[in-house]
Amino acid sequence: MRWLVLTVGLVIAIGAAASSALAAQDQTPAKQDVFLYVDTVNGSRPVGVAPRPLSCTQTNNFKRGEQVVFRAWGSEAATGDILSTENVKSGVVQVPGVAEPLKLNWGAHGATSNRVWFWTAAWVIPADYPLGTANVKVVIETEAGKFARYDYSLTVTPSSALKKGLKAKRATARKK
Predict the structure, then answer these.
(1) Residue 156 to residue 129: CA distance in whole angstroms
(2) Region 155-169: what's the mean pLDDT?
């Protein structure tokens, strides 16, 4: 009897290991039609908080009231063509809790002698936006009907300057 129990246990263990190995083989990534890179920088026009010493500094940690600038670059896999207004139908940033997606705009950035072209969308974090991690989605659709989606996380932290203003606003609202 003991031998039977050990044999059944061994068969179950081998079966579990084999199914895990087969499942890992089936997880090959889907073919990508469009490649996309996304990052964020702090903008130069925060609302209610002091600007950072340097604007356009790459980060994904922001205080309420700061301006987030989403930046995106990409290319079509088949042709290698850069994603621009020539081949992009639409581009948006979907921020949780924000009703309307932010429209990505194509343009030149940097000093005249060293310009770089890419997609951007700016957003000022509201004073009452939830703290913690926000999982943002950047979606681009090409004229050929191909899609690229990039999931990006940013962290929202409190701002002491905005906290004082928000407390005063809530106190005024309670009096009404």
Answers:
(1) 8
(2) 69
Digit-coded pLDDT (tens) for 38-80: 999 999 888 878 888 888 899 999 999 999 999 999 999 989 9
- In terms of phi and psi (left: phi > 0; alpha: psi -120 to 50; beta: otherwise), the region of 132 is left
112: DSSP letter: G
Burial zone of 175 (CB within 10 Å; 0-12 exposed, 13-18 middle, 19+ buried): exposed
For the chain, the domains span 34-160
Homologous superfamily (CATH) for 34-160 = Macroglobulin (MG2) domain (2.60.40.1930)
DSSP helix/strand/coil, 142:
strand
Q: In 3-state terms, what secondary structure has residue 73?
A: strand
Question: Distance between CA 120 and CA 93 in Å, rounded?
Answer: 9
What CA–CA distance (Å, rounded) separates 66 from 19?
49
Q: What are phi and psi of 11, to 5 degrees?
A: -60, -40
Q: Report the pLDDT value the prediction gives residue 15, as an integer from 0 to 100.
A: 53
pTM here?
0.75
